[in-house]
Design brief:
144 residues
Length: 144
Protein backbone atom coordinates (compact mmCIF):
# COMPACT_ATOMS: atom_id res chain seq x y z
CA UNK A 1 0.00 0.00 0.00
CA UNK A 2 1.00 3.60 -0.50
CA UNK A 3 1.85 5.22 2.82
CA UNK A 4 -0.19 8.25 3.84
CA UNK A 5 2.13 10.76 5.52
CA UNK A 6 -0.44 12.12 7.99
CA UNK A 7 -3.28 10.66 10.02
CA UNK A 8 -6.81 11.11 8.68
CA UNK A 9 -9.69 11.28 11.16
CA UNK A 10 -11.96 8.22 11.28
CA UNK A 11 -15.05 10.14 10.19
CA UNK A 12 -13.18 11.57 7.20
CA UNK A 13 -11.87 8.11 6.29
CA UNK A 14 -15.44 6.83 6.32
CA UNK A 15 -16.59 9.71 4.10
CA UNK A 16 -13.77 9.01 1.62
CA UNK A 17 -14.53 5.28 1.35
CA UNK A 18 -18.28 5.95 1.17
CA UNK A 19 -17.70 8.33 -1.74
CA UNK A 20 -15.52 5.79 -3.54
CA UNK A 21 -18.19 3.10 -3.03
CA UNK A 22 -20.84 5.54 -4.29
CA UNK A 23 -18.83 6.12 -7.46
CA UNK A 24 -18.50 2.34 -7.99
CA UNK A 25 -22.28 2.04 -7.66
CA UNK A 26 -23.01 4.78 -10.18
CA UNK A 27 -20.65 3.79 -13.00
CA UNK A 28 -22.28 3.87 -16.43
CA UNK A 29 -21.31 3.88 -20.10
CA UNK A 30 -19.95 7.43 -19.80
CA UNK A 31 -17.64 6.73 -16.85
CA UNK A 32 -14.77 5.43 -18.97
CA UNK A 33 -15.07 8.46 -21.27
CA UNK A 34 -14.65 10.70 -18.22
CA UNK A 35 -11.45 8.87 -17.27
CA UNK A 36 -10.10 8.98 -20.83
CA UNK A 37 -10.77 12.71 -20.97
CA UNK A 38 -9.56 13.74 -17.51
CA UNK A 39 -6.77 11.32 -16.57
CA UNK A 40 -4.06 12.77 -18.86
CA UNK A 41 -4.40 16.17 -17.13
CA UNK A 42 -4.38 14.57 -13.67
CA UNK A 43 -1.30 12.52 -14.54
CA UNK A 44 0.46 15.58 -15.92
CA UNK A 45 -0.20 17.51 -12.67
CA UNK A 46 0.87 14.58 -10.49
CA UNK A 47 4.05 13.85 -12.43
CA UNK A 48 5.34 17.32 -11.58
CA UNK A 49 4.94 16.88 -7.83
CA UNK A 50 8.18 16.65 -5.89
CA UNK A 51 6.91 14.67 -2.91
CA UNK A 52 7.81 11.02 -3.37
CA UNK A 53 4.48 9.66 -2.18
CA UNK A 54 2.73 11.75 -4.85
CA UNK A 55 5.11 10.46 -7.47
CA UNK A 56 4.23 6.94 -6.39
CA UNK A 57 0.51 7.78 -6.57
CA UNK A 58 1.08 8.98 -10.15
CA UNK A 59 2.93 5.78 -11.10
CA UNK A 60 0.30 3.49 -9.59
CA UNK A 61 -2.57 5.40 -11.18
CA UNK A 62 -0.76 5.28 -14.55
CA UNK A 63 -0.31 1.52 -14.22
CA UNK A 64 -4.04 1.18 -13.55
CA UNK A 65 -4.94 3.51 -16.42
CA UNK A 66 -2.71 1.58 -18.82
CA UNK A 67 -4.15 -1.74 -17.63
CA UNK A 68 -7.64 -0.57 -18.64
CA UNK A 69 -7.03 1.77 -21.56
CA UNK A 70 -3.39 1.75 -22.59
CA UNK A 71 -0.61 -0.33 -23.97
CA UNK A 72 -0.84 -3.06 -21.32
CA UNK A 73 -4.61 -3.50 -21.47
CA UNK A 74 -4.27 -6.68 -23.54
CA UNK A 75 -1.26 -8.09 -21.67
CA UNK A 76 -2.58 -8.41 -18.12
CA UNK A 77 -6.05 -9.89 -17.70
CA UNK A 78 -8.31 -7.98 -15.36
CA UNK A 79 -11.82 -8.90 -14.34
CA UNK A 80 -14.74 -6.64 -15.21
CA UNK A 81 -15.23 -6.09 -11.49
CA UNK A 82 -11.61 -4.95 -11.07
CA UNK A 83 -12.02 -2.68 -14.09
CA UNK A 84 -14.97 -1.04 -12.33
CA UNK A 85 -12.93 -0.55 -9.15
CA UNK A 86 -10.11 1.00 -11.17
CA UNK A 87 -12.37 3.28 -13.21
CA UNK A 88 -14.08 4.49 -10.01
CA UNK A 89 -10.71 5.15 -8.34
CA UNK A 90 -9.46 7.07 -11.39
CA UNK A 91 -12.65 9.15 -11.46
CA UNK A 92 -12.09 9.99 -7.80
CA UNK A 93 -8.44 10.87 -8.43
CA UNK A 94 -9.28 13.11 -11.39
CA UNK A 95 -11.69 15.20 -9.32
CA UNK A 96 -9.71 18.02 -7.65
CA UNK A 97 -12.73 18.93 -5.48
CA UNK A 98 -13.23 15.57 -3.76
CA UNK A 99 -13.55 14.96 0.01
CA UNK A 100 -10.18 16.62 0.70
CA UNK A 101 -9.67 19.09 -2.18
CA UNK A 102 -6.38 18.56 -4.00
CA UNK A 103 -5.41 22.18 -3.46
CA UNK A 104 -5.51 21.85 0.37
CA UNK A 105 -1.90 22.51 1.44
CA UNK A 106 -0.07 19.42 2.64
CA UNK A 107 -3.08 17.09 2.72
CA UNK A 108 -4.85 17.52 -0.61
CA UNK A 109 -3.97 14.12 -2.02
CA UNK A 110 -4.24 12.00 1.11
CA UNK A 111 -7.81 10.98 0.31
CA UNK A 112 -6.73 10.06 -3.22
CA UNK A 113 -4.07 7.76 -1.76
CA UNK A 114 -6.67 6.21 0.51
CA UNK A 115 -8.96 5.51 -2.45
CA UNK A 116 -6.07 4.05 -4.44
CA UNK A 117 -5.17 1.79 -1.51
CA UNK A 118 -8.79 0.65 -1.26
CA UNK A 119 -8.80 -0.09 -5.00
CA UNK A 120 -5.58 -2.09 -4.68
CA UNK A 121 -7.16 -4.10 -1.88
CA UNK A 122 -10.33 -4.71 -3.93
CA UNK A 123 -8.48 -6.10 -6.97
CA UNK A 124 -6.35 -8.47 -4.90
CA UNK A 125 -8.47 -11.59 -5.45
CA UNK A 126 -10.22 -10.61 -8.68
CA UNK A 127 -7.10 -9.71 -10.71
CA UNK A 128 -4.06 -11.30 -9.04
CA UNK A 129 -1.61 -10.55 -11.89
CA UNK A 130 -2.39 -6.84 -11.80
CA UNK A 131 -2.28 -6.89 -8.00
CA UNK A 132 1.19 -8.44 -8.19
CA UNK A 133 2.34 -5.77 -10.65
CA UNK A 134 1.10 -2.89 -8.51
CA UNK A 135 2.48 -4.27 -5.25
CA UNK A 136 5.85 -4.89 -6.94
CA UNK A 137 5.84 -1.30 -8.21
CA UNK A 138 5.15 -0.01 -4.70
CA UNK A 139 7.73 -2.24 -3.03
CA UNK A 140 10.41 -1.29 -5.56
CA UNK A 141 9.68 2.42 -5.45
CA UNK A 142 12.61 4.30 -3.97
CA UNK A 143 10.54 6.79 -2.00
CA UNK A 144 8.26 4.32 -0.27
Amino acid sequence: MIRIPLKIESSTKKDIIDEYERIIGTLDEFSEKVVLEKFPNFFSRMSKKEKKYLSLLAKVSKLFFDSCFGKTSKEVPISSESRSYIVAALIYLCNPYDIIPDYAPGVGFHDDIMVMNKCIDKIKKKSPELYKQVTTLILNFEGN
